[in-house]
Automatic annotation (TrEMBL):
It comes from Acropora cervicornis (Staghorn coral). Belongs to the peptidase T1A family. Pfam families: Proteasome (PF00227), Proteasome_A_N (PF10584). It is found in: Cytoplasm; Nucleus. This is Proteasome subunit alpha type. Signal peptide: none annotated. The lineage of its organism: Eukaryota, Metazoa, Cnidaria, Anthozoa, Hexacorallia.
Amino acid sequence: MQFQIREHTAVSRTKHEQQQFVSVSQLNNVHCHSLNMSRRYDTRTTIFSPEGRLYQVEYAMEAVGHAGICLGILANDGIVMAAERRNTNKLLDDVFASEKIYKLHEDFACSVAGITSDANVLTNQLRLIAQRYLLQFQEPIPCEQLVSSLCDVKQYYTQFGGQRPFGVSILYMGWDRHYGFQLYQSDPSGNYSGWKATCIGNNSVAAVSMLKQEYKEEEMTLEDALKIAVKVLDKTLDITKLTPDKVEFSTLTRENGATKMKILGAKEVEALIQEHEQVKAEEAKKTATKK
């Protein structure tokens, strides 16, 4: 009788183990099948996956997500653009002061996040579009038309085989006589949108949530926008202390009927950082006294 009980338990154990093995093998098969399905579609830019996704475009956006942060803030009297500078070698020539902010023409500039070589191609294309319009119509190109024209080029590279999308997102700041100061953002898919304040690159989600809290639409001045930009960079950059060689700032303003773009020097950036540190120290003292 004891022998029969032992034999029955042994048989039940083997059945249970077989069921576990079958379930694990089924899960592995499903996982391998999903990987094979994704690999089948991620090598072609022109083929949709069964879920309706273009994997190469998504991978291009992923490249932007690993790039240095860039943010733009629209103020009543101008626009502020700030960017993280990752290549901080002391041997670099000071003539090429700006690493991520490009002037395109008198009324327009942009900042890029992603593959720098792709960005150089696109910024040259932006300059050509603006110059052709100026030559043809004898007036500067409207901001949105310039952005839309470049996004048509970016979208073209998502529809034809043998080409890959540009791995760059771009922030545009400009002024025209139709709508005044404007801030736009475009991504590798060719989509673009207008913003009051936005961010691209690494930790952009955290930066955008901070901008939502800090941005005051009717009261926003250029000085306030610079302070907010420093605060956001201080919180979102993966560095212990904010220094002038790690960031770059640019402003776009109107003076005497002309648009003026200015890239802030190291001393001006240092002054902004010191002011932010003082405010942060005062806030820390207030919270300490309350406790």
